[in-house]
Please model this.
Amino acid sequence: MSEVLLKIEGINKRFGGLHALSNVSLHINKGEIYGLIGPNGAGKTTMFNVLTGLYTPDEGSFTFDGNDLFRAPPHVVVKTGIARTFQNIRLFHEMTALENVMVGRHIRSSANALGAVLRNKSTRDEEAAIEAKAWELLRYVGIDDVAYERAKNLSYGHQRRLEIARALATEPKLLALDEPAAGMNPSETESLKALMEKIRDGGVTVLLIEHDVKLMMGLCDRIAVLDYGKKIAEGVPEVVRKDPKVIEAYLGVAHE
Amino acid sequence: MTMDTNKKLAVFIASAIVLAVLPFVVGNTLGNSWVRTIDFALLYVMLALGLNIVVGFAGLLDLGFIAFYAVGAYTFALLGSPHFDIHLPFYISIPLGAGLAAMFGLLLGTPVLKLKGDYLAIVTLGFGEIVRIFMNNLNAPVNITNGPQGINLIDPIQVGGVSLGKAIEVFGFSLNPVHMYYYVFLFLTVVVVIMVYRLQHSRIGRAWVAMREDSIAAAAMGLNIRNIKLLAFALGALSGGVAGGLFATFQGFISPESFGLLESIMILAMVVLGGMGHIPGVILGAVVLTIAPEVLRDVIGPLQMHTFGKMIVDPENARMLLFGAAMVIMMLVRPEGMWPSKRRAAEFKDAKKG
Model:
């Protein structure tokens, strides 16, 4: 049995009368690609926002790599090692691609206002290191040729990659990707898949939300299925695919 | 590369020479009242650059910025006047005023962390008024600020036994207070410019831009939004406090009247009209908006006498009218400001297209 990296138990999240997540538990192991699927409105993105600190859950427990992150604010979550991308890409549009990734280095650097004003040696060294690391990550995701372009001028596929590079800049142990293949053509999806495998092989655990079930089946080590805020199945893709509850959630049940 | 550095060096030396001789050239041709106007322009440059940290860099609309100017000014006045008979030297009371202003920045920033846009503007506006009204009423039961009468006979800056408040003779040159203060102000303005420039091009400056563009994404990248906002408020207030202290000693007299809402709006107008977030633009905005009303004051009266033979519109009213019209036209024609940054200009261009 491999080591558990992220462990949530009995998470509940309500929005007024809507029970968006009810008693959801997930265990993500170190070094796997873990998929979260489910029909529209199943609570996948809510789960994501809970995991990254943007939403505070009502009940439950949430530990990550030995740290209690229940109701922790986003910057603490990121510092502990969870980074994310957004379903509807949220880059800093007017900044260049390079600057976007440099923002991601914020949490792993420490120059304060005084250092910035005095521009002493340690601040200059740190700034150079931030920029070097940003270049390295742009090369890693394969978009270093557009480093000086403003983010909003990048193509859709490049924007997706830039968001991944920016998230990787925070040095995550778990990279959470919210529908990274949405709107991509088959060849783009294929190269994205290769990138995700490269990230996993580099030692980063990947959590993936995706609509593209085919992609998920081929890529994920394990999958959980959400429906109406409840986890209805979890396991290796071959088993989940055949689970009657999953088939029912996706296709509806046949009426006799 | 060398060509570029040479050019930069040439520009630097040329502007240094111009700035060095400016008060004498202006004083001898237009009179010392214009040197005084230039001194004020420098104060406003400091103020506008301070506000620019909050509004331009961090994207937080602040309509009460003058409060920090007031805090700096009153700190200096109370610590250097016959009012309490305390006479601390300027190198203590100016940093003290700046520090206190920064603390007031935190005081304002803390309750408004969750607010943005119009709501933030209204709270900051209220904050500015609260500070002014306190200054106005803190004369009873214990007289601290001397109320609406203000504080008089504030110490001039003393450098090595020389008071900047009296004209002195140096090598046959007569140096007026306006000249001497010019150099003090210029020095501190340069310090503030370097400070804000370096902040902008640092980890902190990047964090401000990221927060301004998308605070949710910024939080998801691990930026501590609360601290970054508070830092913007505190650092903006800091330069406001420095300018306030200088204002008090330069004028020798302050009263709550100098710290009204109109002043806050004026400084905001300098930032917006100059080019929000762009340091050269903000400096230009501050200089133009300080000098232009004075030029109009000198021109409108004589012009009417010359063309109509009598005064048709009161010069003071006409001046504000023209000034207001110019601002409206400017915002319609060039909403990004006189000298915007490339990034900001592009934002406006895209907004127009979309």
User: Anything to note?
Assistant: The mean pLDDT of chain A is 91.
